[in-house]
């Protein structure tokens, strides 16, 4: 199971637990995966710099193994005031259904990306991954000068090539099966829905840095397939969401465990950015929205009160239930078991495949 990436990141196994912003990636989940020989990752995209620092300190208390912190490359908030007003009117419908106040003041989104980067540098985080774009060369150089390994996220070969040209050390190739937000940054997200099976070998052929396969990988079969396609590791998100260590809401976990391969869809409705999640009332109802959904992060901020009220009421109909297409394979096992069983299954598969190949 040794690959270019396990050597680069000093891992026992080529398994990365995906960063999952919004609560699932607790210090306990991250440490369990890192201690089991994989790489745990903190999704810090929605955290303040202070919360990021606290989470990193908590992870360091629980593991001495390498771990990763993931940030969102910021985007310019835009959205015309008329589109925002129209959306607010629509969202009041869901607020009424949930029994919460209409027209909440929209909190200004405060940009803290540079401060977060500084926290990661101060705390000497060994591995940093980014999604939604390419960080500035200043940031990339500052990190690499301090020995930080930098990973970028691509959903097309062109994005991968641009990340490599910018100087990242490895690339997550995110297939369309993947749960959560699309990392697409060069084209409209709907033009970049390439399945993992097609994306990985084409990416591997065009970049020289190690490629990490993401999207629909849930067990040893997915790991072996990814390695066969040329990936140096896998990044698994949905497979860890229902673990006891995951901070996902109980109602969300139970939706994951009862979903099928056809339960998810890509939506802009929650955040203004394309993301894959389990279909629910909010997603279905927003399909008929005739106006323009304000782009991320504006829409994300506008739906926050709805998502928070839904979580409080244990009502998954209005929660963002991000998940990939592999949900039938999700289990409630502990995170260390997910790593262990993935490796055991992959090893058994590799040996049986070796036996099946006739000797020359
Ligand atoms: C709940 C959830 C939240 C996610 N949040 C992030 C994130 O903060 N940063 C990121 O780079 N990727 C994020 N992703 C995407 C993962 O990195 C990865 O591409 C995806 O989980 C792989 O597909 P899978 O869920 O089928 O394993 C998220 C995925 C999920 C399911």
Automatic annotation (TrEMBL):
GO terms for biological process: response to toxic substance. InterPro entries: Aldolase_TIM, NMO. Its cofactor is FMN. Pfam families: NMO (PF03060). GO terms for molecular function: dioxygenase activity; nitronate monooxygenase activity; nucleotide binding. Keywords: Detoxification, Dioxygenase, Flavoprotein, FMN, Monooxygenase, Nucleotide-binding, Oxidoreductase. It comes from the Bacteria. It catalyses: 3 propionate 3-nitronate + 3 O2 + H2O = 3 3-oxopropanoate + 2 nitrate + nitrite + H2O2 + 3 H(+). Transmembrane segments: none annotated. PANTHER family: NITRONATE MONOOXYGENASE-RELATED. Nitronate monooxygenase that uses molecular oxygen to catalyze the oxidative denitrification of alkyl nitronates. Acts on propionate 3-nitronate (P3N), the presumed physiological substrate. Probably functions in the detoxification of P3N, a metabolic poison produced by plants and fungi as a defense mechanism. Belongs to the nitronate monooxygenase family. NMO class I subfamily. This is Probable nitronate monooxygenase. It comes from Paenibacillus curdlanolyticus YK9.
